[in-house]
Recover the amino acids of this structure.
């Protein structure tokens, strides 16, 4: 049901026609659920819009139920609505981006474990002299530096906004600067890392130590856009609850 987002759904002025068709075809069509989607349930400035959409939805859904003669499942709330509008939870809710631990509202729901992480291996280590440059961006070094080359690039979804020390990745208990991102490879500065770094060591792009929201902010993006930008070239590993491997 389109209550104001105007993306998908049945327009409210179409409902009489839809209801008539449901009644005529009641022997072969059974309505399981009715839903709509909020414009800005996460935004306090849009609370009046949210209330108006909810009022429209509930009243029209009740009208449909009365016309067809039975109750159906009704749902409205996305992740923002789950936290900010518990009075609109109705029969069920749609746990979307919040399922990945990303919450566009306060208070954020805390998970015991990080839900989504991205790692990339170091494929080469090299030492580069002071005043030399790294990558297509020609990031100029101010000191002799140890450079780590990661097997990930902008073709995988890593944004070039993170170039030239604007972004960080995590290894050996600390954040290290991203120097240059190419299509398939990324160069990072390992000079200040405490401990021995070796080829094939895994570097956290984001996850437990680098929240995806922080990476997205560095890229001047919302977390949804940043997370969904990672391509199918990234190997997916799904871990079940209580899976120790």
């Amino acid at each position: 049901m389109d209550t104001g987002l105007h993306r998908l759904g049945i327009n409210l002025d179409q409902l009489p026609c839809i209801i008539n068709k449901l009644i005529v075809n009641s022997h072969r069509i059974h309505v399981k659920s009715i839903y709509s989607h909020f414009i800005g349930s996460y935004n306090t400035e849009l609370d009046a819009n949210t209330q108006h959409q909810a009022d429209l939805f509930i009243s029209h859904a009740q009208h449909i139920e009365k016309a067809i003669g039975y109750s159906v499942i009704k749902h409205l709330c996305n992740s923002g609505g789950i936290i900010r509008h518990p009075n609109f939870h109705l029969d069920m809710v749609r746990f979307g981006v919040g399922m990945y631990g990303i919450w566009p509202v306060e208070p954020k729901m805390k998970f015991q474990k990080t839900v989504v992480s991205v790692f990339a291996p170091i494929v080469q280590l090299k030492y580069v002299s002071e005043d030399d440059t790294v990558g297509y961006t020609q990031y100029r070094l101010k000191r002799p530096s140890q450079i780590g080359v990661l097997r990930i690039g902008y073709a995988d979804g890593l944004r070039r906004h993170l170039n030239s020390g604007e972004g960080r990745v995590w290894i050996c208990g600390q954040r290290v600067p991203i120097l240059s991102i190419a299509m398939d490879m990324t160069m990072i500065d390992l000079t200040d890392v405490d401990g021995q770094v070796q080829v094939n060591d895994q570097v956290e792009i984001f996850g437990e130590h680098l929240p995806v929201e922080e990476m997205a902010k560095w890229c001047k993006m919302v977390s949804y856009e940043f997370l969904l930008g990672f391509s199918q070239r990234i190997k997916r590993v799904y871990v079940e609850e209580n899976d120790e491997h």
Notes: The two ends are 44 Å apart (CA to CA). Residues 137 and 231 are 23 Å apart (CA to CA). The chain has two domains: 12-100, 118-228. The mean pLDDT is 93.
